[in-house]
Amino acid sequence: MGIMPTLILIIIIIWKVLGIETTDKWYTHVHKPVYEEGDVTVLWNQAVHTDREVTANRPDIIIKNKKEETCTLIDVAIPADRNVQKEAEKKLKYKSLCIEIQRMWNLKCTIIPVIIGATGTATRSLRKNLEAVPGKHSIDSLQQTAVLGKSHIIGKYCSVKLEA
Known about the structure:
Elements: H1 3-18, E1 34-37, E2 40-44, E3 61-65, E4 70-77, H2 87-105, E5 108-115, H3 126-131, H4 139-163
Helix pairs in contact: 1-4
């Protein structure tokens, strides 16, 4: 549950920038896997089919901008705090997909990892990474969403253990 609200929060902010009608409350938001607004296409949780085999072909968010000739792959992770420094791993994971997108779609491709620890721990480069994502993102809101997601999971786990 922790990653879904955080992802939806980021998607809502991106859609607002693109002028796509949305809600302020992430928990009432109904999302579609593909949104198109003018020259910009936003894909959420969609696989990219390539000519060559690519194992990691489903980043969390893809922003394809035909006018600016760019494609941005955004991958959100909420790991345990000891695993927060996963940025290099995330960039490496989608590097081959990025190369294929550049080759097939003739767009400049960038990979943006958004990593927030389960207790709200942020990486040093989180602010810089979020600046590359369209919209104004509040690190506090993303951290709060991650922590609330974790507490929800713990609450569910504890209630199952008590009932058993």
